[in-house]
């Protein structure tokens, strides 16, 4: 209609505004519609409505509308959250001129019958996979339709290896089944498991699923022995190393344990380890405690074996960048007269599922003669197992990107017969594998705008190096910390060794609240600013100190530091004394190379191929969300082949490209539609008008009636194309089979462009019918 302007939003897992400014000419609107391509993933209604509302706010007229094309699938509409709908209602109330929009809903006829069997998931029995032993591949199949279906064979390939096909038999509506394969990987590196089901059903798009897995060569484990002076049978670290070590020299080594005395911990490099075990270690040196906390934040695993030598008051006060390191408070030792046993009925964690469900496991039969009492689980921690008297045996928590486990008894002969049980060896391996899972690069992500892989590694500061002699000569990079002694060498090849300056910029995120003192060792000049205020300024300092600075845990502070080198020696180290008394070089884990007005820094770029064979841009970035490898554009479920930028190849073990799998959500295949309560919830916040055809929409836009009173002519409308909501394309296909005429035009040309329908049908993988 004349006088109406349209903005077009493509729905899906992340909305995409397809029009920079509202369009008023029919030909322009049709051109945008004709170029739309559906994206995969569940529809996020509130995100799309939010984008549309922002577009409405730019309109100059007094009346506004939202037009939604939908299949009435409940997934993504958040009908279980009245707060989310109330927030949208507040946004609509706040539009200019208080012109609250209407919601015109054009839904498509639902199929009376649907024959559909779907691959709803692929799971592995372990988080960390090596070439040393078999792993279970579990494939979930579900009949999500309304009819009984007898699917054909299911075929599984791992890399280039095809496994033996399996059949399923007849499946009733709602019935599910899990097929299990046992497979031992023969090579390391990233690989893809692909499942293809001959569904013999109406929809082929959910008959395929992929899962990417990174097969590791080794799993380095550092065991710190706190009772090194005792005999082997009195040392928890001895039993653990024996359980993890290969049985013979000929056996392939995956877990690679090494044992050190606690006194050597301050000198030990831990950056390349996957798991650190503190085996009844009394206390930690301050520097070691900080390094271990940072190690866990960056994805490492920590196992604390709380034996009789451990100092509970020390561990209870151990804090790092993500708060208390321990998942619970440890207390005094308790020595029950007849001992206790682990209670398999209380095992409540994936790491213990093997010992709870499978016959022949004897973990619960071992007598434990002593343990530490415990209390006060921290927020997010879990009591994963208890003793027969109800006290906690094992507690876990996530800490930053890593994982922590505490066992409240020492795992040696001092505290009972647990190490002598056959289950002890698999118990130690399962614990170690789960702890190492935080370091694994997850190559599987949910559908979203710009799907991204989280990369390992800490933060840092943006560094600008410049010559003080030749204007314009310089370079930039990310420095993890300010801790340099160039010893007559240049900061980078070809750069001067003297007369240069550096500026470091970013944000500092304090790990704890309280007073900090900054310490600087420098030759020649150094200045530090926090939130624009000079905290320290000096030169040629053996150890210059700032005054006390009050900082709040987790609250970012704008960080800026500058350094100048004149002649001769060149060094600079920035340390701090924390509120807990720890003195250390300020670690990379508390820095991010962006300030308040920035979101990320680009480290490098490359390209990727999406599941349709299209080319996508890829950026490696470092920002508030950590290090990411981001694929540009909206996600299509399936396998991507992503090139790794040179700047981050070392973080990906030298791989030049890796597979990335965008997972399809299983709920998209299930039939669950709006109900009356859902409509009532929407009507509390907006005038919901359900229309039967495009003609009715046009009548509404003209201010005409079609069985109910219509408001005045609109000045602007937002046309939100939610064709990707749930399984819209399926209902479109079914409706056309049933003879319903689907049209979308702006006069009588009431048709959804054929190119879009064909593309939707191809994406969703429909069988039969016209698309």
CATH class of the largest domain: Alpha Beta
Estimated structural class: alpha+beta
Distance between the termini: 28 Å
Q: Which stretches are poorly predicted, pLDDT < 50 over at least 5 residues? A: 706-771
- In terms of DSSP E residues, the strand content is 25-35%
Detailed description of the structure:
- Helix 2 (45-57) runs parallel beside helix 3 and helix 11 crosses helix 12 (754-764).
- The chain contains 12 helices and 45 strands.
- It has 771 residues and is an alpha+beta fold.
- Mean pLDDT is 83; it is low at 706-771.
- The protein folds into 5 domains: 6-112 and 671-764, 3-Layer(aba) Sandwich (Rossmann fold), CATH 3.40.50; 117-216, Immunoglobulins (Immunoglobulin-like), CATH 2.60.40; 219-439, 3-Layer(aba) Sandwich (Rossmann fold); 444-456 and 598-661, no CATH class; 461-592, Toxin - Anthrax Protective Antigen, domain 1, CATH 3.90.182.
- The strands form 9 sheets. It has a 7-stranded mixed beta sheet. Strands 24-43-42-39-40-41-25 form a 7-stranded mixed beta sheet, with no helix packed on it. Strands 26, 27, 29, 31, 32, 35 and 38 form a 7-stranded antiparallel beta sheet that branches.
- Helix content is 15%, strand content 34%.
Name the features:
single chain, 771 residues, alpha+beta, Immunoglobulin-like, Rossmann fold, 5 domains, 45 strands, globular, disordered C terminus
């Amino acid at each position: 209609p004349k006088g109406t302007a349209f903005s077009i939003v493509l729905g899906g897992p992340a909305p995409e505004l397809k029009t920079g400014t509202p369009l008023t000419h029919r030909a322009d609107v049709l051109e945008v519609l004709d170029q739309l391509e559906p994206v995969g993933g569940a529809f996020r209604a509130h995100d799309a409505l939010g984008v549309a509302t922002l577009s409405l706010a730019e309109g100059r007229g007094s009346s506004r509308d939202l037009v939604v094309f939908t299949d009435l699938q409940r997934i993504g509409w958040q009908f279980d959250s009245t707060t989310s709908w109330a927030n949208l209602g507040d946004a609509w109330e706040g539009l200019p001129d208080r012109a609250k929009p209407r919601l015109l809903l054009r839904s498509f006829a639902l199929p009376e019958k649907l024959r559909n069997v779907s691959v709803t998931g692929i799971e592995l029995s372990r988080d960390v996979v090596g070439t040393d032993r078999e792993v279970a591949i579990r494939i979930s199949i579900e009949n999500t339709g309304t009819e009984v279906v007898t699917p054909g064979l299911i075929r599984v390939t791992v890399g280039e290896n095809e496994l033996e096909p399996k059949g399923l038999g007849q499946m009733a509506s709602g019935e599910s089944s899990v097929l299990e394969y046992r497979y031992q990987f023969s090579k390391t590196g990233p690989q893809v498991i692909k499942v293809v089901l001959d569904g013999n059903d109406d929809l082929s798009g959910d008959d395929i699923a992929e899962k990417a897995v990174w097969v590791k060569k080794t799993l380095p484990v550092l065991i710190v022995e706190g009772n090194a002076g005792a005999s082997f049978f009195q040392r928890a670290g001895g039993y653990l190393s024996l359980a993890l070590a290969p049985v013979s020299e000929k056996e392939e080594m995956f877990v690679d344990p090494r044992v050190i005395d606690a006194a050597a911990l301050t000198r030990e490099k831990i950056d390349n380890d996957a798991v650190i075990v503190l085996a009844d270690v009394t206390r930690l040196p301050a520097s070691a405690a900080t390094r271990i906390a940072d190690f866990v934040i960056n994805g490492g695993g920590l196992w604390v074996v709380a034996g009789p030598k451990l100092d509970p008051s020390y561990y209870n006060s151990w804090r790092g960048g993500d708060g208390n390191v321990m998942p619970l408070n440890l207390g005094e030792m308790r020595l029950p007269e007849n001992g206790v046993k682990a209670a398999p009925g209380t095992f409540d964690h994936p790491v213990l599922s093997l010992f709870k469900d499978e016959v022949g496991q004897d973990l619960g039969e071992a007598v434990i003669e002593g343990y530490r009492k415990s209390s006060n689980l921290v927020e997010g921690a879990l009591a994963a197992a208890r003793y027969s008297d109800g006290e906690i045996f094992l507690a876990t928590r996530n800490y930053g990107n890593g994982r922590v486990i505490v066992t409240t008894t020492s795992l040696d002969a001092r505290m009972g017969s647990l190490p002598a049980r056959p289950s002890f060896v698999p118990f130690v391996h399962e614990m170690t594998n789960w702890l190492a899972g935080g370091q694994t690069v997850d190559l599987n992500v949910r559908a979203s705008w710009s799907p991204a892989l989280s990369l390992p590694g800490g933060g840092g500061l943006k560094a600008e190096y410049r010559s003080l002699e030749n204007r314009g000569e310089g370079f930039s990079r990310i420095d993890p910390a300010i801790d340099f002694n160039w010893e007559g060498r240049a900061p980078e090849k070809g750069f001067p060794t003297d007369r240069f300056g550096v500026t470091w910029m970013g944000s500092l995120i304090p790990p704890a609240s309280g007073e900090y003192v900054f310490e600087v060792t420098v030759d020649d000049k150094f200045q530090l600013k926090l939130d624009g205020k000079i905290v320290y300024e000096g030169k040629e300092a053996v150890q210059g100190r700032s005054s006390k600075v009050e900082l709040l845990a987790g609250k970012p502070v704008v960080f800026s530091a500058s350094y100048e080198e004149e002649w001769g020696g060149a060094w600079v180290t920035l340390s701090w004394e924390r509120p807990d008394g720890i003195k250390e070089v300020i670690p990379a884990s508390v820095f991010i190379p962006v300030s308040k007005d920035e979101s990320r820094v680009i480290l490098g770029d490359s390209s990727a191929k999406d599941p349709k064979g299209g080319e996508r841009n890829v950026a490696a970035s470092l920002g508030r969300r950590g290090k990411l490898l981001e694929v540009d554009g909206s996600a299509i479920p399936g396998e991507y082949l992503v090139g790794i930028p040179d700047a981050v190849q070392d973080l990906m073990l030298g791989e030049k490209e890796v597979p990335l799998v965008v997972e399809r959500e299983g709920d998209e295949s299930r039939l669950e539609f709006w109900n009356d309560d859902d409509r009532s919830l929407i009507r509390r916040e907006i005038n919901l008008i359900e229309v039967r055809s495009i003609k009715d929409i046009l009548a509404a836009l003209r201010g005409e009636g079609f069985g109910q009173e219509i408001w005045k002519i609109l000045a602007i409308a937002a046309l939100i194309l939610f064709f990707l909501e749930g399984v819209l394309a399926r209902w479109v296909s079914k409706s056309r089979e049933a003879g319903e005429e689907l049209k979308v035009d702006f006069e009588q040309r009431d048709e959804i462009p054929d190119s879009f329908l064909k593309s939707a049908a191809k994406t969703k993988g429909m069988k039969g019918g016209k698309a």
